[in-house]
Amino acid sequence: MKSGFVAILGRPNVGKSTLLNGLINHNVSIVTDKSQTTRNNIIGIYNDENTQIVFLDTPGIHKPKAQLGQEMNNMAYSAAHDVDVAILVVDASKPFGDGDTYIIDHLDIHHCPLIIVFNKIDLARLDKTEELKKTYRSFFKDAIFIDTVAKEGFNIDEIIKNVSSLLPEGPAYYPPEMITDKDEIFRIKEIIREKVLKSLREEVPHSVAIYMEHIEWEKKPLQILASIIVEKDSQKGIVIGKGGQRIKEIGSKARQSIERLLNQHVYLELKVKVDEDWRNAPSSLKEYGYKYEK
Ligand SMILES: Nc1nc2c(ncn2[C@@H]2O[C@H](COP(=O)(O)OP(=O)(O)O)[C@@H](O)[C@H]2O)c(=O)[nH]1
Ligand SMILES: [Mg+2]
Predict the structure, then answer these.
(1) Residue 14 Cα, ligand 1 centroid: separation in angstroms?
(2) Most buried residue, 10, 152, 160, 169, by most Cβ within 10 Å?
(3) Which CATH superfamily groups domain 184-287?
């Protein structure tokens, strides 16, 4: 059989996580309309009779403003190292700019075959996309170009086809029923973070982390106590909302998704805690699972 590892790389918010979920037909990576939603490398595994493709979704590469941003970039750079194929996702509806140059300058993807996915073509003008492709062609002479609408699953099979043809003969690295390397606690925390992000605007989302205080697997319904970490008192108020309305809503949506994930009833309690400037504190970054270690 053919098998191998494929990194999905690119700027924030171009549709990398949407693409991963579509490629493996499961929601393992959270998607929002906010940039920098993905904070860790997340594996999603595609299987068919002749192929196993281990995709790595990565945090968007950007000019970092806090230590957290640097850690996220490092995770993405590290994912690009040992893969058989690299996929660079580009937002086809945006003109070439500083963010593209930043990636081209910082990311080393010249050691393996490269597929450049021009995503969001539903929002793009044909002539603008052609221009963008010309610019990318000048940097990557041998790359394969594929147009997609990840959100609708359009042309995703082209990616599978091309990746498969580029992979070497090899063993299955994971059992075929496995769809991600992330354990249930990670996925529960990500579901909670997704619901928080979806209910907030602008600056607060970047300040949010989730900490699992306590989980009792034996109890029925399953008992979960988690903390939503923010950086300032004012943000705590925003997350809680008037009369606790917002956190109640976040909790109820998160509980429903967790119940679907685990296929059992769940009792979910959420608290909000302030950890000042945690995005620059090495010990907090480690505690919340964002410290990149080689
Ligand atoms: N119009 C359109 N939106 C998309 C497409 N793919 C993803 N999106 C949206 O773009 C936003 C960012 O997606 P996400 O997968 O989180 O991007 P990531 O930061 O690169 O992982 C979300 O609101 C998606 O629904 C697409 O092909 N077309
Ligand atoms: Mg993402």
Answers:
(1) 6
(2) 10
(3) K homology (KH) domain (3.30.300.20)
